[in-house]
């Protein structure tokens, strides 16, 4: 059967649209497919397991397409004939949801459907594109490995290559299901392994370094659903909304005003993310469209960024705090970012003054000025990793002086556990994304220690699930170090790219000092040779 594509599409009885059970969709179809090749004969069957296996054992082929019954199977087989050399065939396994996301009541579908409106066309292309896709994938792997290694060594390269798929895998890139209009593309990201929110701002924030390095347009695509919602006036609180929906895949907003409140966190995040996108792309039109929406949130940071009411930060597992120093740092950097974004110098001045208050005037440091404390003004003997300093460095905002990073670099060498530095002095657990953010602000020796700590956790063999961004870093409180905690498969591991992001936006596709330059044309054997040399 020349040029034959066999596709089995399996769905559940009585599907429930836009719902999930145990992180699995309760609508859509599972796809099993293959395509004939010039050197193989494709056969396929569905039906009772014992009948299909018996027939295949006797004839070497599959035949039959009986209706699905409980305990039934689907099967695909290629007869390669007499094999005299290496041959390969391709199988496809996937999941299709025509209506992928519910955005404010309108169905959005996968971006691919702009070119392949039906599943058969998409699957056929997917199978035929294998060779080109493999070549592009190998090239991406090699580009990433070489440039990450040039940035911070082989162990850092190991970390980011393991993080890449996870950071993108949580994203749905979508277009309207009715018009299939690619000019109306939106991206949605699931807050995996926690509460299943959509487009949580403080999930986009830690992940954004990977998008900054690889494709900064993703920052806008992820923010756009929220920006449209805010512009419509449906969220009436004076601070930025936490997420676009409580339960994936329903990005329906919070018209009841009942989203999880993280006022300083999300306002500061929006300012930084917007500036990072514009710095990377030069897209001033996007800023002009939403500047009036963002300004009240910048004012919220001005009005509430010193005497901070008790509230959560992104690390909600640690509980709420009043006057948390790291949030005050975020407010200062966010205010300065808005000033840079809009050219409104008053905001830049205020951001700088806030930094002076918390560092030079020591409101946020211990008396000896060796580190930032967890809370002010009473300043108990405490600390928290000040990862919100990272955007100040990445975007050259100069809100805080260089002495801040020298101070932190020296201090955090002294509080490392067996697998790194915990989030703060109350905890025994670390956040890998924030630790890489902070490491990017450090002097090289401390930076390399942080990379070593994360690599040691990643390779310790104490976990059998996707990369966890939260884990026990020290045995000081009696727990077994190096063990992951709850969080897994989260896109926040995109924050591991914080060091690479210092090379500049889209730097994966540019020149990185010390990185090997790859030829424009390479085949699979060339890629394997280069990989071995690495």
TrEMBL record:
A single GO BP: carbohydrate metabolic process
Domain named Glutaminase A N-terminal: residues: 3-146
Domain spans labelled Glutaminase A central: 153-499
Pfam families reported in the protein's UniProt record: DUF5127, GtaA_6_Hairpin
Name of the protein: Unnamed protein product
Phylogenetic lineage: Eukaryota, Fungi, Dikarya, Ascomycota, Pezizomycotina
